[in-house]
């Protein structure tokens, strides 16, 4: 059933972030949601999107246009900050398959390197930062009147894992926490600089993705002592609406996540949202359907069921556990939208 | 000869060094084992490895996380380096070699590294290709090293598909090679469908299955040899 519009998706999302009443939870994401169905209309290759602002914006807008999914989000990979800091990336241009860009060459090669690395003077003009800004402007000009425009950055720990060997970072978090702390401090500053650029380009909300700190990998204690202080700084310096996303096991860190000062927290399908809701009170909570096994591989009925579960468990926005996988059937996103709109009506 | 009391003391020290990720402690105890002429096999399996088993338990109980696991592994390797030259025959009944890596397009290697460590501990010869490994490289490396086993890891549903190609290429070139796959999106169903010989959901099971596979492979080869001769 179509919705009798009381507010645009954009108004709904912005109102929710500001803590005002909304008629229903928005159905959107702060992470990548490009679809191969959207790319087909343009004849774009996935690998080409990452280095062309026009294509990036077209691809991001296509999801909303095809399905009504209530946002536009760029970029699609996790390498922008690392590249601007000096890393080399691989976009797999030679392959037809959908492979996400990765870091080919890191910039820190040993413990000593952690102390010599610094933010380049022209950081905001380096790598693809100008390109992502341009994509946000284009996206804003295209669909920004109807939906909120989002972008994301990495959290300092996850970014550290992109620019140095993750195994070393994990061990040093124990053995030399002060040294890791200094690196995170520097990276938190770089992240804030990048966020300022995204805000200037017109991003309405920014998701900070700190998946490297999931409790599948790192203990809640280390998260709280070593990482949380730097997340707090980032959120206190941000003017746009903010979300802190961590995937994997997060039940034991959900309270710390809300203490970060983020406007909302986002968790994936491994989180018991009903329990989290009890622990964090009325703080904004987004989640937590499985973006692959349900949205891509599931039936329409499975999708509807997952949506109802999210809403029953008490999310403020129906939102995926990670990037939506590009091969998602358009019909499944439409079914999800329909369920969000009509459940409890 | 060491007394039973001294032996127990050293085994405990080895074990605890691994559990408390104390590299220096593991080195000291290992050096003492060597100096006293104690059996190195005993020290490895009833000391270091038994410590690692406890670490695995703590990891499952979520008392330990990945950093603790990696540091314990370092302590274990530190002891192993000292003890290995003094081992008469280090194996768990099989001597196997394995090629391992995370498939192309995928940089998730935390899980793969844990699986690799289990193989190291068990005395396998391990050829670690790292992460984001071009698919052909697995085939090349298997042929180059004539390894018994190839282990593929993938953490994403898209990169996982690459395994299918590696499996069929490997089996075409070398029908005897054993292939095991793993990583969060992988299942035993998928392993079966794509023609892999095994799947394991975690590192402990990976090792158990690997040992079984390599043993049966060796047996098969021996029988074939015997037939030829006889
Ligand atoms: C850490 C992490 C990252 C780190 C990886 C760092 C590194 N060096 O590994 C970074 C930040 C770089 C990253 C990047 C991305 N990630 Co990521 N990441 C994770 C995360 C949070 C943890 C994975 C992990 O290490 N778990 C802990 C280890 C110990 O467990 P494990 O890997 O499962 O290993 C065990 C078993 O599986 C098994 N095993 C593993 N390998 C093998 C092999 C064999 C042979 C056997 C027998 C057994 C076996 O034994 C292991 C030990 O018991 C997961 C979410 C989650 N919680 O699982 C997402 C996740 C894997 N990532 C995901 C995504 C989407 C991405 C990105 C595409 C995001 C983007 N937009 O770019 C990129 C991919 C980049 C690329 N091309 O590779 C998705 C994948 C979705 C899907 N179904 O395909 C996940 C599942 C998140 C989610 N909730 O959806 N990620």
Explained architecture:
- The complex is a heterodimer of chains A (345) and B (230).
- With 345 residues, chain A is α/β, with parallel strands linked by helices.
- Chain A has helices spanning 9-17, 36-42, 46-49, 53-67, 80-85, 113-116, 129-143, 156-163, 166-175, 177-201, 220-236, 254-259, 273-280, 300-313, 330-342; strands spanning 72-73, 88-90, 102-105, 149-154, 205-209, 241-246, 264-267, 284-289, 317-320.
- Chain A has a single domain (9-342), classed as TIM Barrel, CATH 3.20.20.
- The radius of gyration of chain A is 19 Å and the shape is globular.
- Chain A starts with 8 loop residues before the first helix and ends with a helix.
- Chain B folds into two domains: 4-88, Methionine synthase domain (Methyltransferase, Methionine Synthase (B12-binding Domains), Chain A, domain 1); 97-208, Cobalamin-binding domain (Rossmann fold).
- Chain B has helices at 4-19, 23-36, 40-60, 66-83, 110-121, 135-145, 157-173, 188-194, 203-229; strands spanning 97-102, 125-128, 149-153, 178-182, 198-199.
- In chain B, helix 1 (4-19) runs antiparallel to helix 4 (66-83), helix 5 packs across helix 9 and helix 6 packs parallel to helix 7.
- In chain B, 47% of the residues are buried.
- Bound molecules: cobalamin (B12).
- Cobalamin sits between chains B (66, 105-112, 114-115, 151-153, 155-157, 180-185, 200, 202-203, 206) and A (32, 77-78, 100, 102, 158, 161, 166, 211-212, 214, 216-217, 247-248, 268, 291-292, 321-323).
- The domain tally of chain B reads 2
Kindly state the percentage of residues in helix of chain B. Answer: 55-70%
Using a beta-carbon cutoff below 8 angstroms, give the protein chain pair with the largest interface and the number of residues from each chain.
A-B, 27 and 22 residues
Q: On the 0-100 scale, what is the average pLDDT of chain B?
A: 90
Main sheet attributes: strand count, strand direction, barrel closure of chain A? 7 strands, parallel
Strand percent estimate of chain A: 5-15%
* Largest pleated sheet of chain B: 5 strands, parallel
- The order of strands across the largest sheet of chain A is 1-4-5-6-7-8-9
The CATH superfamily of the largest domain in chain B turns out to be Cobalamin-binding domain
Any low-confidence stretches of chain A, pLDDT <50, length ≥5?
Answer: none
- Class from helix and strand fractions of chain A: alpha/beta
Tell me the CATH architecture of the largest domain in chain B: 3-Layer(aba) Sandwich
First-residue to last-residue Cα separation of chain A: 11 Å
Regarding CATH, which class of the largest domain in chain B?
Answer: Alpha Beta
Cα-based radius of gyration of chain A, to the nearest Å: 19 Å
H and E string of chain A: HHHHEHEEHHEHHHEHEHEHEHEH
Question: Mean of residue pLDDT of chain A?
Answer: 96
Number of helices of chain B: 9
Number of strands of chain B: 5
What's the quaternary structure here?
A: heterodimer
